[in-house]
C-alpha cells in the first residue's frame, strides 16, 4: 500500500561520465533522463547525497516523483539512494530502481518487488544501504553476452547498432513501466507489460 504523503524515489542506476553514457549498464540513467524530460525537470547536484536529482509530479496534482542518478559509480549506488530516501522520507516500498538485467532477453521489461540481486552490484549496494531488499525494481533486459565474453565487459560496452535501433522505443516503454507502477500499482503493471 502506498503512502501519498511521501514521494516516490525513482533511481536510475548507471555510471557517471561520458565514457559510460552509451553502456548497457547505463540504461537506468537513460530511463531517468527520459522521465525527467517528461516531468519538465532538469537534474542538479543534491546537497545531501552524491547524486543528481530532479523533482516533479506525474500529471496535474499527481504523485510526486524524485528522480535520482547516483554519481558514485554503480557498485556504490546504495549510499546516495539511502541518503535520498532518508532526506525525502521515502519508505522502501516507494523506491524504484531501474537497472540493466542480464537474465532476461534484450528489450524485455520486468517489474518486481524484492528478491535477489542476481549478481548486480548496484542492487547489492542498494539492498545493503537501505537495509532491505523490499524495494521495487524495473528490470531492463540486456541479455547474456555472446560467446565467452566476460559479463563485466559486456555490461560496460555500448549497445550494438542493431540494439540501438530499438533502444529509444524500449527506454520510452521502461519509463511507461515506472509511471504505471506509481499510478496503477505493481500488479497492474506486471499484467500489462509482462506478456511482451
Automatic annotation (TrEMBL):
UniProt-listed PANTHER family: PEPTIDYL-TRNA HYDROLASE
Entry keyword set: Cytoplasm, Hydrolase, RNA-binding, tRNA-binding
HAMAP family named among the record's database cross-references: Pept_tRNA_hydro_bact
Entry annotation: catalytic residues: 25 (proton acceptor)
Domain of life of the organism encoding this protein: Bacteria
Record's function text: Hydrolyzes ribosome-free peptidyl-tRNAs (with 1 or more amino acids incorporated), which drop off the ribosome during protein synthesis, or as a result of ribosome stalling. Catalyzes the release of premature peptidyl moieties from peptidyl-tRNA molecules trapped in stalled 50S ribosomal subunits, and thus maintains levels of free tRNAs and 50S ribosomes.
Family statement drawn from the similarity comment of this UniProt entry: Belongs to the PTH family.
EC number assigned by the record: 3.1.1.29
CDD domains xref list: PTH
Annotated tRNA binding sites: 20, 73, 75, 121
Parts forming coiled coils: none
One Gene Ontology term of the molecular function aspect: peptidyl-tRNA hydrolase activity
Provenance organism: Micromonospora sonneratiae
Catalytic activity, reaction form: an N-acyl-L-alpha-aminoacyl-tRNA + H2O = an N-acyl-L-amino acid + a tRNA + H(+)
Marked site positions, Stabilizes the basic form of H active site to accept a proton: 100
Self-association state and partner proteins as the record states: Monomer.
Annotated protein name in UniProt: Peptidyl-tRNA hydrolase
Chief subcellular location: cytoplasm
Amino acid at each position: 500500500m502506498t503512502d501519498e504523503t511521501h514521494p516516490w524515489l525513482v533511481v536510475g542506476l548507471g555510471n557517471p561520465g561520458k565514457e559510460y553514457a552509451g553502456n548497457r549498464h547505463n540504461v537506468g540513467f537513460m530511463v531517468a533522463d527520459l522521465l525527467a524530460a517528461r516531468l519538465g525537470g532538469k537534474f542538479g547536484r543534491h546537497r545531501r547525497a552524491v547524486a543528481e536529482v530532479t523533482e516533479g509530479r506525474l500529471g496535474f496534482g499527481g504523485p510526486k516523483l524524485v528522480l535520482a542518478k547516483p554519481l558514485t559509480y554503480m557498485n556504490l549506488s546504495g549510499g546516495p539512494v539511502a541518503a535520498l530516501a532518508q532526506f525525502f522520507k521515502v519508505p522502501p516500498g516507494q523506491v524504484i530502481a531501474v537497472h540493466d538485467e542480464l537474465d532476461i532477453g534484450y528489450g524485455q521489461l520486468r517489474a518486481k518487488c524484492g528478491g535477489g540481486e542476481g549478481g548486480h552490484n548496484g542492487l547489492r549496494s542498494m539492498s545493503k544501504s537501505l537495509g532491505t531488499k523490499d524495494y521495487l525494481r524495473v528490470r531492463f533486459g540486456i541479455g547474456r553476452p555472446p560467446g565467452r565474453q566476460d559479463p563485466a565487459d559486456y555490461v560496460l560496452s555500448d549497445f550494438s547498432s542493431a540494439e540501438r535501433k530499438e533502444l529509444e522505443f524500449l527506454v520510452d516503454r521502461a519509463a511507461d513501466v515506472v509511471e504505471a507502477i506509481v499510478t496503477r500499482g505493481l500488479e497492474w503493471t506486471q499484467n500489462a507489460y509482462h506478456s511482451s
